[in-house]
Design a protein that fits this description.
Layout (H helix, E strand, L loop, with lengths): L9 E3 L6 H10 L5 E3 L16 H14 L6 E3 L6 H16 L7 E3 L5 H6 L6
Parallel strand pairs: 1-2, 3-4
């Protein structure tokens, strides 16, 4: 659609560019009408609108620690997913800052509602 000028631009919601978008970005560079709106990956070489997943996860952990929670389990995503990796950076940074890194339990998941809902009952 971009090649045929049927669309003015493309918003990508993922950490992988579709092949056509990748070609357009390689040809046009920064002028390509492609923006990432979800999983930030600087290697994509396109503008991005996203949250700081590491800082957000750290803030969540600090809040839970501040409430007095000692043992916190994190149900994350697939280990190779950039969102999961960025969030784990924040989780681990908060644990390290409080000397509780060894007390954290990280459980990989798939980011689905059924997976998340089914995990807590199996956690100690």
């Amino acid at each position: 659609m971009l090649r045929r000028n049927e669309a003015a631009g493309m918003i990508v919601l993922g950490h992988r560019l579709p092949p056509t978008a990748r070609e357009i970005v390689q040809q046009r560079g920064a002028a390509a009408p492609v923006v990432n709106g979800c999983e930030f990956d600087p290697a994509l070489g396109i503008p991005s609108v996203h949250i700081d997943n590491a800082a957000a996860a750290r803030a969540v952990m600090e809040h839970l620690y501040g409430l007095g929670h000692e043992q916190i389990a994190v149900v994350g995503g697939p280990p190779d997913n950039p969102l999961h990796q960025q969030r784990l950076q924040g989780v681990r940074a908060a644990g390290k800052a409080r000397g509780r890194l060894r007390q954290q339990r990280i459980v990989p998941g798939d980011f689905s509602r059924p997976d998340g809902a089914g995990r807590p009952g199996g956690l100690p």
